[in-house]
Every structure is written in C-alpha cells, then in structure tokens.
Amino acid sequence: MAQSMTPIEDAIRTKLTEALKPTTLDIQNDSHLHSHHKAMQGVTSKETHFRLTITSPEFAGKMQPARHRMVYALLKDEMAQEGGIHALQLKTRTPEEEQKVAEK
Asked: How many distinct structural domains can be found in the chain?
C-alpha cells in the first residue's frame, strides 16, 4: 500500500472528523507560504502551516478560546512531532453561526 503524501493533513482530517463531527471542514496547507521564514530553515516537511475552517455542533456554548483548545488538544501529537504542525490558523463556528454568515 502506498504511503500518503499528506500524512499530517490526513491525521488532522481523521481526528477532527471523529471527535467534532463537523458539518464543514476545510483544510488549507499554507506551508509553502512560510518555507522562507527563518524558523523553517532546514525543515523538510511540507506540512507545517495550516488554515482550518471547522463548523461543528460540538462548539455550541463555547467561546473561541475554548474551541481552539479543543482543536489543539486533538492535534497535540502532530504539533509535538519533529516536522509537524508549526502553526494553525483556526476559524471555528457552530452550524447556527455559519448559517448567520451565509445569510449576510
């Protein structure tokens, strides 16, 4: 069986889908935009910077910091590993919040 070319993105998708049951999950790999940064010199991973949009009923009643902590906790292994996630940009919404945005 072939090894995935995007193992970290695959892990993000799997973990967030299983735990948060999102109605929307958009994962953008922005690593190429940051490869020239000093902190990224010598890093060969192409999966270090991600932009995520997540809509989940699991976020109901939680403020943004709590929602972000939920995501960070789910991805702690990917953030801790060498060549893993260096930065996450998160947009977290409930289905109701997403509906309001769509109506505008």
From this structure: 1
- Residue 28: inside a domain: yes
Q: Residue 88: inside a domain, yes or no?
A: yes
CATH value at residue 76: 3.30.300.90
Cα diameter, the chain: 46
What are the CA-CA distances from residue 9 to residues 65, 84, 87, 99, 101 (Å)?
Answer: 22, 10, 13, 26, 26
Pairwise CA distance, residues 35 & 96, whole Å: 36
Task: State the pTM of this model.
Answer: 0.84
Q: Which domain holds residue 71?
A: 7-36+46-103
Buried b (16+ CB within 10 A) or exposed e, 64-76: eeebeebbeebbe
- Identify the band that residue 80 occupies on the pLDDT scale cut at 50, 70 and 90: very high
